[in-house]
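Deliverable D2.4 — example input (structure tokens):
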């Protein structure tokens, strides 16, 4: 293969930017003190953690003391949901049918413990209706959790409106903003959110570190018991170098977001238009305009997504058929089923997510290779032949 691999799976994870790696390296070797130690090395480490906390807080319009470092976005989601359920009086939670499994599974876990969960449906674009949220609120509702933007189809949810409804009803509101940070503006006050989850490896930071914003004054049980780290809420020695990396990554991502967004939207739209114009029987999934700048998600009829991914991989293009967390599963995406797609069409989905290093040449290469790959797979499909015969009859 003489073509370099084109990585278009940035919703699953991103490359650590060189500036981020450079900021992290000294904290592995030269400055490796424990932030809880009172000697010089410990104090230096403590300052580094607190600097990163300020960087994360500034990026989302929060106060530093409202930021709690975690191990990943999934941990942040679990903590927000289960931590609030621990202390709240009431047994009802509202979420949506298109959430990430890091939200759905804790909700299912709580259902086994006697909680009731309302899973709100979405429209054909994957959007949650603010009115439906309002109608679902009950006396015993303890939490509303709706994602900021969908990881599979890229649809951006009306979070500020939902947040205002939650606030008026006095119900705590959590949002999984893992895909949104660094891609679209995120401001906890403007969005009326009480808790917000994020993960560094989605915005060119390292894996293994995330954060949970918890609005000052909101009660939530500690995630882990032991030492006094993270304001007594999450025991365990801090992941020092990664926390420094997260601070640097979020600062870079947010400061360069607007210019980066323009490039991504142009390339994404070129990809969508190119595929739509050259390949018949395709469908764009997600909202046509209110979507993440880097997200392309389409279904190709008469094709099985896994075969498409393997063929693309052989051609040097790395994509996905949904979220990385479910790639071991043969069921079609719960998100595509929730927007009303039948199983056989949902199975033929392709998600390509652009990133920092995506170039015009990369998109041209995809548009050159994809039509042929789709045709080869369709030629092997009995369903495709039946459909063609019907058309020609």
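Example output (designed residues):
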């Amino acid at each position: 293969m003489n073509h370099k691999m084109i990585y278009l799976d940035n919703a699953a994870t991103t490359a650590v930017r060189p500036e981020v790696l450079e900021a992290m390296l000294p904290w592995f070797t030269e400055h490796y003190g424990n932030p809880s130690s009172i000697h010089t090395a410990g104090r230096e480490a403590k300052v580094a953690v607190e600097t990163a906390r300020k960087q994360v807080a500034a990026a989302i319009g929060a106060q530093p003391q409202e930021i709690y470092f975690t191990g990943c976005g999934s941990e942040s989601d679990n903590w927000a949901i289960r931590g609030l359920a621990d202390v709240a009086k009431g047994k009802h939670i509202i979420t949506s049918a298109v959430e990430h499994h890091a939200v759905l599974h804790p909700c299912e876990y709580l259902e086994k413990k006697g909680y009731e969960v309302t899973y709100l449906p979405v429209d054909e674009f994957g959007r949650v209706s603010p009115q439906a949220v309002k109608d679902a609120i009950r006396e015993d509702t303890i939490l509303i959790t709706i994602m900021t933007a969908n990881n599979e189809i890229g649809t951006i949810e009306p979070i500020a409106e939902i947040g205002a409804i939650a606030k008026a009803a006095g119900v705590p509101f959590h949002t999984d903003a893992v895909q949104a940070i660094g891609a679209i503006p995120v401001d906890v006050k403007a969005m009326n959110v009480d808790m917000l989850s994020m993960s560094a490896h989605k915005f060119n930071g390292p894996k293994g570190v995330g954060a949970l914003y918890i609005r000052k004054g909101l009660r939530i049980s500690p995630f882990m018991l032991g030492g006094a780290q993270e304001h007594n809420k999450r025991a365990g020695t801090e992941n020092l170098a990664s926390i420094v990396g997260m601070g640097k990554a979020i600062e870079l991502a947010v400061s360069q977001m607007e210019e980066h967004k323009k490039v991504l939207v142009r390339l994404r739209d070129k990809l969508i238009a190119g595929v739509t114009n050259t390949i018949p029987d395709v469908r764009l999934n997600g909202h046509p305009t209110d979507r993440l700048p880097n997200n392309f998600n389409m279904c190709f009829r008469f094709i099985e997504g896994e075969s498409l991914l393997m063929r693309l991989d052989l051609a040097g293009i790395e994509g996905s058929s949904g979220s990385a967390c479910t790639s071991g599963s043969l069921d079609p995406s719960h998100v595509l089923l929730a927007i009303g797609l039948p199983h056989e069409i949902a199975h033929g989905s392709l998600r390509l997510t652009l990133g920092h290093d995506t170039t015009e040449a990369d998109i041209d290469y995809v548009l050159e290779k994809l039509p042929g790959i789709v045709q080869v797979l369709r030629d092997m499909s009995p369903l495709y032949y039946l459909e063609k015969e019907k058309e020609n009859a």
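Residues 311 and 373 are 7 Å apart (CA to CA).
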